[in-house]
Design brief:
The complex is a heterodimer of chains A (272) and B (283). With 272 residues, chain A is α/β, with parallel strands linked by helices. Chain A is 29% helix and 28% strand. In chain A, the strands form 3 sheets. In chain A, strands 5-6-7-3-8-9 form a 6-stranded mixed beta sheet, with helices on both faces. Chain A has a 3-stranded antiparallel beta sheet with strand order 2-1-4, with helices on one face. In chain A, helix 4 packs across helix 5. The chains are: A alpha/beta (272), B mainly alpha (283). The interface between A and B is medium-sized, with 30 and 24 residues.
């Protein structure tokens, strides 16, 4: 690998619940690069993120962040979980949540200092959430909750930001707002990995795409990744090609009654 | 009126009962906030019942009952921690087996003594009027230890309760904090043994904290309010017990339950009335 790479994975193999969920994934992400991770349900997108933040052990292979193992440095990988994984009824305010991003640097038993509070205010300001600082997180809309978690990730001052399915369950306005934020992060040189089902956004708004299904099927600029061959390998029978359009059926991971795949919801449309 | 309020506490054993009840009301309620938010109520109840054999053995050996309970509680906390980390069965199953077995063992041990019925009643439902000065000191020391630990680890416990994944990625060892929670829970159960007994300690852990949850929107204020509710329930319960001549532990728990019911109906925002009004506005 070259020293221009921020994050590099070599032969990364991860087992989840006794089954190999990721098999020998090798890829390198340049500094400030933004990668969309796509693939069918159960392709190992979340597993990849959990391995990157050290929640799942590697069975084989190596992950390097700026040429070192991720656990050995102060500037970590910040992970923004899927919205469904958070308990929104928990009694915490917006600024409480963002302050949690500082805990890693505070150490055990230490109270937040003025500098930490300032940074928290800056992060909230950057995401347009300053007016909500004292509000309970449960009172916010889905898009606002997501921005709070992004602010928390920024408060960690990370080298790498992982966003798990940030586009699902938010409206078009919130999605565009998030893409604007990603654009600003690009200018600040923060490396971003985004897992998504939204192939269209992946192909149109990201410079790099990684297509995953247990193993890395393709990785590179969208036109090189979104070929009929690669899509066919990743999605198998769930991909349908119609006059330059591609329709992917994400419901039929198992067969429905009558042996027919449902195609009526959760379709992803991308350029073939 | 003032005489009516001060009369019960002219007696020394009633003063000790008041002090012990206040300590239990505050400690249970503050720790209870984490019990409620982490859905550990069943675990707390199980831990309470599981101290019974320790109490019984101490009693039979003529040792200090609180010390026996403390040892048993710590052993059980460690056992549950081990079970739930790499158990072959689901956690609530493991807890269910462990606590029923411990309770049975405790009853078997106590039933070998002739004054079985009275002793068992005191352990199960507390005997706050029998708190000795020595008991009060031990209770106070344990309570200070538990509250100081919660205060020192406040931000770690908050993080691990709200977002164990972030806690892990920041190197905050959520599984270690979970074990700390278990030990704190065990100590609190021991502190509560004489006032409300093993049968009702779960109520003191859960009810004031749940009441405070309905009335606040931030963990720090939830803990402060829970402490006030717990202390107020303890004092009110003692008066009820004195003047109506009923069991004190049960009176304290029923007072706390009454406070919860009021909050459940009338709490702004989360109460039944407020939610119904919000639905009517939305309709």
């Amino acid at each position: 690998m070259s020293t221009d790479d921020c994050l590099s994975l070599e032969n990364v193999t991860v087992a989840y619940r006794g089954r190999t969920a990721l098999d020998a994934v090798t890829m390198a992400v340049p500094h400030g690069g933004q990668v969309a991770i796509v693939g069918p349900n159960g392709a190992g997108k979340s597993t990849l993120f959990k391995a990157l933040v050290g929640l799942l052990p590697l069975r084989a292979g190596r992950i390097e962040l700026r040429d070192r193992a991720p656990g050995t440095q102060a500037q970590p990988i910040a992970y923004v979980p899927q919205r469904e994984e958070v308990d929104w009824t928990f009694p915490v305010t917006v600024s409480d949540v963002v302050m949690m991003g500082r805990y890693g640097r505070l150490g055990w038993l230490r109270r937040p200092r003025a500098a930490d509070r300032e940074l928290v205010a800056d992060c909230l300001d950057e995401l347009g959430m300053a007016d909500f600082a004292g509000r309970p997180v449960g009172d916010l809309s889905g898009g606002q909750q997501q921005r709070v978690f992004l602010a928390r990730a920024l408060a960690q001052e990370p080298h790498v930001l992982l966003l798990d399915e940030p586009f699902s369950g938010v409206d078009v306005g919130a999605k565009e707002a998030l893409l604007d934020i990603l654009e600003r992060l690009r200018r600040r040189g923060i490396t971003v990995l985004v897992s998504t089902h939204d192939l269209q956004t992946a192909s149109q708004r990201f410079e790099l795409v990684a297509l995953l299904n247990g193993r890395l099927i393709a990785y590179g600029p969208p036109p090189e990744v979104f070929t009929a061959e690669h899509i066919g390998t990743a999605f198998g029978g769930h991909a349908l090609f119609l006059e330059g359009m591609m329709v992917i059926d994400e419901c039929g991971t198992g067969e429905v009654a009558g042996g027919q795949h449902r195609r009526d919801h959760e379709r992803d449309v991308g350029d073939a | 009126m003032i005489h009516w309020l001060t009369e019960p506490f002219t007696l020394q054993f009633m003063q000790r009962a008041l002090a012990a009840s206040l300590i239990v009301g505050v400690v249970c309620s503050v720790l209870g906030c984490f019990v409620v938010l982490r859905a550990m109520a069943f675990l707390g109840d199980a831990l309470a019942h599981a101290v019974l054999p320790g109490v019984a053995i101490a009693y039979l050996l003529g040792a200090n009952i609180l010390a026996g309970a403390l040892v048993a509680a710590l052993v059980v906390a460690a056992g549950i921690g081990l079970f739930s980390r790499r158990g072959a069965v689901k956690e609530d199953t493991a807890i269910g087996i462990l606590f029923a077995a411990a309770l049975a063992l405790g009853v078997v041990l106590i039933s070998t003594v002739r004054s079985y019925a009275t002793d068992l009643t005191h352990i199960l439902f507390g005997n706050v009027l029998g708190v000795s000065p020595g008991d009060l000191w031990l209770t106070g020391a344990l309570a200070v230890g538990v509250l100081a630990t919660i205060l020192l680890l406040y931000k770690e416990l908050l993080l691990a309760s709200f977002d164990p994944v972030l806690a892990h990625t920041l190197g905050r060892r959520p599984e270690l904090l979970r074990f700390v929670m278990l030990v704190l829970l065990a100590l609190t159960v021991v502190v509560s043994l004489q006032t409300v007994g093993v049968g009702l300690v779960a109520a003191m852990l859960v009810t004031p904290a749940a009441t405070a949850y309905l009335l606040t929107r931030r963990l720090s204020s939830m803990m402060a309010l829970a402490a006030v509710i717990g202390a107020a329930s303890s004092v009110t319960g003692l008066y009820v017990s004195y003047y109506l001549n009923v069991a004190s532990g049960a009176a304290v728990v029923l007072t706390a339950t009454a406070a919860f019911l009021v909050a459940f109906v009338a709490a702004p925002g989360r109460g039944v009335l407020a939610r119904r009004a919000a639905m009517r506005r939305a309709a």
